[in-house]
Amino acid sequence: MLTLVLDNQDFMVLNKPSGMPMHDSENAIIRVAESLFNYQKLWLIHRLDTDTSGCILLAKTKQAASELSKQFAEKNVQKYYIAVIDSKPKKKQGTIKGDMKKARNGDWKLSTSQVNPAITQFFSFSLPNTTIETAIHSGLQTPPEPTIKSAQSPAIRLCMVKPISGKTHQIRVALKSLGSPIVGDKRYKGTPSDRLYLHSYVLQFAYKNEIYNATCLPEAGVLFACNLNSFFSQNSDPRTMQWPTHKA
């Protein structure tokens, strides 16, 4: 179910569930939102992958859609995501930068060229007492088989991610390039689980000379629910983190 997070006379921010598509379906986010909130027409300002959850911005008027879309096009919107991985990345924090190239079967891959690069900044945090097995055994939920790798499966890590650009599958490919695909990411060979563990956590944007902030907590997912409350209480605002300075 869509949850209303921020409501303005010209736009709304919703918490999108994993599995809801953007287009071409009776369950697409625009159709569901128009019906749920009783609007004849809403405008989609940006996109999330079907299996990615979290903050999504919709405009209520054509004029607002134009202004907000411009903010995204000019990279003036600050976007922060959280992702769960269970393989130690090649580096614990930093910037991942490279051109996105099409691969087989709709996949993308990161190249070393820098013509029009995807730029992704991230921090990763170890959660040593939480593995996929302990999450399953907590009784919260039973993900589909085969989730458990072995009795020695590594502890999961939580990544706070800030994409500077907005390319298709950018975060998923960036983390895969570090040897750490996102848990539940079937396309990029992440460990099978109950969902894709990628979530749009915070949006910050300007509209009519005012700054708006929207925060969406994950509402589903055994690994988000298991032992992560303490993390969110200590790292609740990614805007205060010491992100690398980006040079265009």
UniProtKB/TrEMBL annotation:
<dbReference type="GO" id="GO:0140098">
    <property type="term" value="F:catalytic activity, acting on RNA"/>
</dbReference>
<protein>
    <submittedName>
        <fullName>tRNA pseudouridine32 synthase</fullName>
    </submittedName>
</protein>
<comment type="similarity">
    <text>Belongs to the pseudouridine synthase RluA family.</text>
</comment>
<dbReference type="InterPro" id="IPR050188">
    <property type="entry name" value="RluA_PseudoU_synthase"/>
</dbReference>
<dbReference type="GO" id="GO:0009982">
    <property type="term" value="F:pseudouridine synthase activity"/>
</dbReference>
<dbReference type="Pfam" id="PF00849">
    <property type="entry name" value="PseudoU_synth_2"/>
</dbReference>
<dbReference type="GO" id="GO:0003723">
    <property type="term" value="F:RNA binding"/>
</dbReference>
<dbReference type="GO" id="GO:0000455">
    <property type="term" value="P:enzyme-directed rRNA pseudouridine synthesis"/>
</dbReference>
<feature type="domain" description="Pseudouridine synthase RsuA/RluA-like">
    <location>
        <begin position="10"/>
        <end position="176"/>
    </location>
</feature>
<dbReference type="InterPro" id="IPR006145">
    <property type="entry name" value="PsdUridine_synth_RsuA/RluA"/>
</dbReference>
<dbReference type="InterPro" id="IPR006224">
    <property type="entry name" value="PsdUridine_synth_RluA-like_CS"/>
</dbReference>
<dbReference type="InterPro" id="IPR020103">
    <property type="entry name" value="PsdUridine_synth_cat_dom_sf"/>
</dbReference>
